[in-house]
Amino acid sequence: MLATSQRCLARSQRLITSSHLSSSLCSSSPPRYSRLLSTTSVRRQSNHGDVDGLPTIFDRPPASVAVLGGGLTGLATAFWLAWWHPQMKITIYEASNRLGGWIDSEEVKVKGLTGEKGSVWFQRGARMVNPQHSKGPLYRYDDLAFYLLVTQLGLSEQLQNAPETEVMGKYIYYPDHLVQLPDKSMTLLEVWQTLRKEPLFEGLFPSLWSFGKTRLRQLFTSTLKPPTQDAHSQNELSVGEHFTKMFGRPDLVENVLSAVMHGIYGGDVWKLSVQRTPFWDVLKDGRYPRLPPAYTWLDTPDAELLNWVRGDACRELAEDHLTTSAHWFPSGLNELTDALVEFLKKRGNVTIRLGHRVTSMTYAAKADRVAIRTSKQPTPITYEKVISTLYAKTLADICSPGTLPSLEKSTATTIRVVNLWYPEPGLNHPHKGFGYLIPQSVPFQENRHFILGVMFDSDREWVPNPHRPGQYINRGKDTIRGTKLTVMMGGHYWDHLPPHEIPDEQTAIRYAKKAVARHLGFSRATNDTAVVSTKLCKDCIPQQLVGHRERMKAAHEELLAAFRGRVAVAGGSYQVPGVLPSIRAALDIARQIRGSFHWQDATRAVEIKSITVGDTGLWRFAAPVRSMVRVDKSGFTALRGHDRRLAIIRRKRAESEMEREE
Q1: How confident is the model over 634-652, as pLDDT tens digits?
Q2: Which keywords, in A-to-Z order, does the entry hold (predicted)?
Q3: CA–CA separation, 275 and 627 (whole Å)
Q4: Displacement of CA 648 from its chain's centroid (Å)
Q5: What pTM was estimated for this model as a whole?
Q6: Rounded distance, CA 404 to CA 618, Å?
Q7: Which of 55, 78, 180, 77 is nearest to 434 (CA)?
């Protein structure tokens, strides 16, 4: 719970020196992963040969690249291209007058209860990330791309974290009060009383009984399925339909899962594809043959990423955070995007064009290039490669009508974010923790302003000092303590509203203050002390609805037909939305453009083909291959357990050293 991971401080210089950064992809394989990699048994099948033989139009990296969109995905893509290719001419087109996309923070001057002056940071977009490696029955490694980016930018010491031992209370508002979800802070008696008495959990026990029977049936019948069966060939269902089928009733779907979908996507639980949500990672192991205890299934791209990411800095940062449940930066994730911008502005081969809204994109057949026109650049400029990180529907709109019909069907939700800061600390207590979400099943009279959820930002940033009762450790950048909340409203509830009916700033602020006061019991006098800020994030969260995989498969073919492999796409419209998937998508497309490379270990030079997403960025949707590989996890779990113990010992030693210093 320390403001900065103390175990990192002792080697801060070693982690971010240029020698480590320049060799971050060239060092020997991390010990934690070495045995896993050496014992990986790849069992994938294709109707068209090995996936590594995927054809590409490039026999060399393109000399000129245009990146459409200056959000996190676009900046990270440009960063890795500029890092690997100092001679490549890279141009970033951004329609607005700022970079960073939906990651946006604002410093606001405030006064405390006694008149003291200070400042607080309001965050409008994503504010934290959750490490994904070694979680659950299936492993994911998008966070390795995040750790790689953090180390290359030299941000390891700024990275804040919450250990997995820290309990952050999570709540759901239903039907007219906050209900705490069971966690480690509750006794067994409290858990039992909550599950038995709260209407939120109506139908829980019969639903779990039905779910258990369904899962057992899947696990036992999976031995009869051929090894070549692809989990994605199953009939695709929405999250609501899938879990209603498994639970045998819709209670938990409407009361709990719909709230979770509001918090992640702002979307409708009955429309979002279950295959494009975190639930699928846990559920899809039943779609494959059962394995002996020593083996597990791993996504093929993740196995390939494990085999590729190298470097002491990235490895040590990942190992330091084996017991971390969340990451953030003191003033917000804008510290990450600001570092990317600072790096790119110093590169002579990178041009940033702000206020340039792309108006058309066409294929110049004679030159075999892509021509770009913008609102400030009517004369077309051609590029060998274009990478679009724009919202998919926007991309379809700038192409000739009918060029990308699959992307024209894309949808996204609009979220209004209202930030509130009250000078009195702890106003949300006794409801301490992460915050609360509101499910679709809440009656209209209890949610007439379409609130999706409220986050308790001050509880995450200010935590009690375990060594000094009554004092707090500041894990953010605020200079004065108060109660800071973020209210999210709109989402799928506003899908069919015309623009003029979406609440304006003053109306949204009034709605947010009323809702928070009703939910948390604030008085009118308390509400009047709030310092507020708001932002409308239009089409900010792409919705991957049922049929997304087939649409992306069709889009892959449409992009190839229209642009001959010269245009690729990346971002939340295609891959799973979120900070970690966005960084992973940027890394994948940059590696695809890079082609192949060499790394040198102690005994040999190995050439690794890095063709991972194809020339369109959508090859994984179209590839006729198994999506999983079987790996021997015995070495991995042993190493992971060993490293976890080391991490805990390091943390305790750091805390003891701090106690002695104090």
Answers
A1: 434 333 333 444 445 555 5
A2: FAD, Flavoprotein, Heme biosynthesis, Oxidoreductase, Porphyrin biosynthesis
A3: 13
A4: 26
A5: 0.83
A6: 13
A7: 180
